[in-house]
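Course assignment 3, question 2. Fill in each field.
Student: A.L.
Task: Predict the tertiary structure for the chain below.
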Amino acid sequence: MKMNMDGELEKILYLIKYLNDSLKIKINLTSLEAENMIINNQLEGLIYLKKDMIILRKQFEKRIKKRYLENNLQDLKLETELKRLNKVINKTNFEALIHKGYPLPGKIKGLRFSIDIDFVFKKRNKLMFEEEDFITLHKEMKKAGYHSRFDLRIKKEPTQDMSVEEITELVSVLHSYKEYGYKHPETGVLIEPHLHLVNPHTPIKFNVQEMFKTSKKIPNMQNIKVPRTEFLILIYAYHLFHHRGEIVLKELLTLKLIVENNLIDWQYLVKKSKQTNISALVKFYLNLGKQYLDLQIPFKTLKDLKKDSSKIQLILISLINKKRLMIKNKDFFLMQLYNSYLIDTKQKRLFEFLHKSLNNIINRK
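Answer field:
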């Protein structure tokens, strides 16, 4: 069974690697293992687009065609909501930074499913988001016809006369860092404004001010931007771990689209990875792309990222079974790597000692 699973994984990696190329031979993906891997990693769009080069069960081909069409429809809905959101933002003094949900460079229609649009925002003349901004945005979103989570989860609507303390308390009721969201009845796409880019209780600290300063404008949208490419890689590396490796192959496809359709300042990426305290995660993410998709990632970049990673993180990375992670979408040591970002300094020293001991035991065998 193990050999069969490994073989199916190799076939799917081959299809991702040669996404834009014609294949000379047909690839057989009729096994249950292959179908489960495709579904679990949300790769139905990829497989349908390459279907002329793949042998599939008829029933499964119908299923992935349905998902491919759903992906196409979702892409149109995302475009509609970005235009609607642009109008809302333009009515305020805000600028928004879309960090997930915007079509990636080189993205092929129907290839990849995005469920929502995530963004951080602030006043154009300010460095950071302020609590009062939440009320202003909420008011404009309601005027534009959006329904909010407040409508469903709390009895009291936020109002302009609330104090900052009341707003903060209200916001914290909904979530620790993804505080509120909106859906427009026309599309049903979830729009999620974030007060923080990532969970503020971890040592991972994105420099949102610099992300705004170095961001790129979306064509035909005055005040909606996307992060520069290097920050985008950091964000997806973080989300690979934040979601505990649940969709590794999908995130590898994402990395391929980013790396092959952008000029990347690798030195800047290393610098920002270190400042964000995410070097180990970025190294693991890029190394997966280099090892399994032959992405052109400089050896020096991986070396510098390794130098900026803690010993505990490097030990945990060395213990991750990459193939098992891609097949099963979970790995014990990846979970511990994620947890290593959530514990305080004193605990981290103990954690590092324990894993040094574990590594020594493994090396003796």
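Instructor remarks: Residues 51 and 232 are 30 Å apart (CA to CA). The two ends are 26 Å apart (CA to CA).
Grade: pending
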